[in-house]
Amino acid sequence: MAVYALTGFSLVSLISFGYVSRDWMKPNLMENEPAADYTDKASDLTPKPPPHIIFILTDDQGFHDIGYHGSEIQTPTLDKLAAEGVKLENYYIQPICTPSRSQLITGRYQIHTGLQHSIIRPRQPNCLPLNQVTLPQKLQEAGYSTHMVGKWHLGFYKKECLPTRRGFDSFFGSLTGSVDYYTYDSCDGPGHCGYDLHEGEGVAWGQSGKYSTQFYTQRVNKILATHDPRQPIFVYLSFQAVHTPLQSPKEYIYKYRGMGNVARRKYAAMVSCMDEAVKNVTYALRKYGYYKNSVIVFSTDNGGQPFSGGSNWPLRGHKGTYWEGGIRGLGFVHSPLIKRKRRVSKALVHITDWYPTLVGLAGGNMSDSEDLDGYNVWPTISEGKESPRKEILHNIDPLYNHAKYGSWEEGHRIWNTAVQASIRVGDWKLLTGDPGYSDWIPPQTQANFPGSWWNLERRTDIQKSVWLFNITGDPYERYDLSEQKREVVKELLTRLAHYNHTAIPVRYPAEDPRASPELNGGAWGPWAGEEEEDHWDEALPKKSKTKKKKCKLCKLRSFFRKLNTRIMSNRI
C-alpha cells in the first residue's frame, strides 16, 4: 500500500494532539441525536406558508476555520446556530468561486453549463448561460420576493447577465471576484482597476469607507425591516469575506494579537467580524417576525487558502485543488422547521442540491427541471433520512494543464488520465490529471509561515496521474489505493467517461479590451451590446506583454496569482 504521509506526524499523533477526532472518521455517527420530534397529526394537515429562506455564502473560509471544528478562531454565532440545527459533515462544494456559485444557482454541474474551466474573469465576455433557469427565478414563480446582497461573480458583460435579470428583485453588491473591503476598487491585472459596488443595475458611487461585511449586513437588515413577513422572502447573502485582501476593522484584530502570523491574525479577525454579521441577521429575523418560519443555510464556496490565512486542517490540499481541503465545505442548516435538530449529518450533500431542495421547500414547480444534477435533500436534513445522492462529479476540466505522466494507457483506454478530473462514487474518490498541490498544512500560527513549513520534498506524487481513496475511511487522503483496487479505478473511470459524454463545450472566451473600467466611467459593468453575438469558440485569452504601472492592490493580487500558478505547475 502506498502511503503519502504528513511528514513528522502520524495518524496516532494527530489524534493524541487533539487535531483529529476518532469519531469524526465514523461515517454514520450522530452527535447529541434526540428522539424524533413527532408533532400533532392534525397540525400536519393544516396548510403551512412557504418558509423564508436565508442563504449565507462565505468566500474562502477554510474547513478548519470555525469554532466547532476546533479552530482557535472564535465563531460563537455560527457555533450556536449549527449546534441547534444540523451540521453537514459530508458536504461538498467546488474548489473556486464561479463554479460553486454557478452550481448553487442552477443545480447543475459545471460540465452542463460550460463553466468547467477556471472562473469568469472581469474582462471576459462570459456569464452564467442565459438559457439556465435560476434558483431565484424558480422562487419568484413560487411567489417569493428575492434579494441578493454581496458578491455575484457570475459574469456581467451584458445587462442580461446581471443579478436583477437572473431572478433577483434587488441586488446590492459587487460583480467581480475580489474588491477592496473599504474602497470597493477591483483590479484585474495592471492598468485594469475600477470601482465595483452596484445597486440594481447602476453603480453605487460614494460608499467608500464602509466595511463591506458590515455594510452588506445593514442592507439585509433593511430589506427585512421593510418587507412584509406574511410574504415569503429569499435572501442570498454572499459575503466577500474572507477572501483577500486581508482587511478588517481594528477592533476585531485585537483579540487575536497573540497570533504570531500576521496573515492568520487578520484572517481570524475577518472571520469573527463575519460571525457577528450573521448574528445581526439572525437578530433581525427574530425582531421582524421571520424566524419561526425560516430556514437558514450556511455554506462556504470553496476551501481556504493557507497563504492568505485560511486553514483546512486536517484535510489535504487547499483552495483551487480537488483534494478534500479544496472541496469539502463548511455547511449547516438552522431552522425551527427541522424535525430532528441538534445533530451531525454524515449524509452526502453537494452544493447543486440546494436548488431542488429550496424550490421544493417553497412549493415550487420542478416538473420542468428533470435534468438537474442536484437532489432534494430536505428529508435527509430535516428527518435524518438516507441521502438520495450516491455520487458527485467534482469536475472535468479539459483545458487545465494536462498532467505530464497521464495517458489513455494509464486510464485503461477508458479515460485519458492527463485530464484534470475528479469523481466520488459511494465511499470511493478518484482523481486524474493534476489535482493541484497536495499537502497537509496545520494552522499557520508561526510568524514566518510558509517558510518554516514549506518543503519541496513533501510532494511525492508529481509523477502520478491517478489516485483512488476510500474517502469515508480515509477522509485525509493518506492512503492511495489505485494500484490495489484497479477494478474500482476502472469503474470510476467509466463513470467519468459517461459524464464527459454529457458535457457541453467549455465557455472561456478571450478577454475583451472594451471591458476596461477606463472606458466605462471608472467602474466595472456591462459593456457589450444586447444584440452582439457570442463567440465561445475563440482562442483563449493571451497575456498582454504591455507593462503598465501597478497599483498596490494590483501588486498584491498579482503576487497571489503568480504564487498559485507556480504551485499548480509544480515549479515550487
Automatic annotation (TrEMBL):
Q: Which family does this protein fall into?
A: Belongs to the sulfatase family.
The answer to keyword Calcium applying to this record is yes
> According to its UniProt record, what is one Pfam family this protein matches?
Sulfatase
Q: What is the residue range of the signal peptide feature?
A: 1-22
Q: Coiled-coil region(s) at which residues?
A: none
Record InterPro entries: Alkaline_phosphatase_core_sf (IPR017850), ARSB (IPR047115), Sulfatase_CS (IPR024607), Sulfatase_N (IPR000917)
| This protein's name | ARSI Arylsulfatase
Q: Which organism is it from?
A: Polyodon spathula (North American paddlefish)
User: Which keywords appear in this protein's UniProt record, sorted alphabetically?
Assistant: Calcium, Glycoprotein, Hydrolase, Metal-binding, Signal
Q: Which cofactor does it need?
A: Ca(2+)
Transmembrane annotation, as ranges? none
Return the Gene3D superfamilies for the record. 3.30.1120.10, Alkaline Phosphatase, subunit A
> Which positions fall inside the Sulfatase N-terminal domain?
51-363
* Record CDD domains: 4-S (cd16029)
